[in-house]
Amino acid sequence: MEQSFNEALLKLCMLLYRIDGKITLSEQDYYDSIYRHINWQGEDDLEEFQRQSIHQVRDAVENGEAKQFVMSLKDHLSFNAKKALAIAQGICLIDGDIAEQEQEILDYLKFRVLAKYLDKIDIE
Questions:
Q1: Rounded distance, CA 96 to CA 78, Å?
Q2: Which of 22, 42, 93, 95 has the most C-beta neighbours closer than 10 Å?
Q3: 79-118: per-residue pLDDT in tens?
Q4: Taking a C-beta distance cutoff of 8 angstroms, is the pair 7, 44 a contact?
Q5: Which string of DSSP letters, residue by residue, matches 67-94?
Q6: Is the separation of the CB atoms in 79 and 2 below 8 Å?
Q7: Residues 21-27: what's their mean pLDDT?
Q8: Is the pTM of this model over 0.85?
Q9: Longest CA span, the chain
């Protein structure tokens, strides 16, 4: 379960830093910090997983399917919903500016995808 969560978390982060069409250094640094400290136990090499995931995220963004992509991560992100939301908020806030697309995905994540896994106090 933890490995699936880690994979979903990395994909979510990739989506959030790519969704507005610009990747800032602070967003990249935040992602790199998560990437370097993740407890990777996957069968695939972490770098290979990242390459494949970048392609999936790019396709989702280009095809206007970002919300569907996030929803596809639901079961895995629910393993630790609070951490997933905290990291998602962190990557969106790290550059000091939340783009409209980022806010839309954050709201969707918080109120639709992970809502039943978060305590009521966490989503207010």
A1: 27
A2: 95
A3: 999 999 999 999 999 988 899 999 999 999 999 999 998 8
A4: no
A5: HHHHHHTHHHHGGGHHHHHHHHHHHHHT
A6: yes
A7: 89
A8: yes
A9: 38
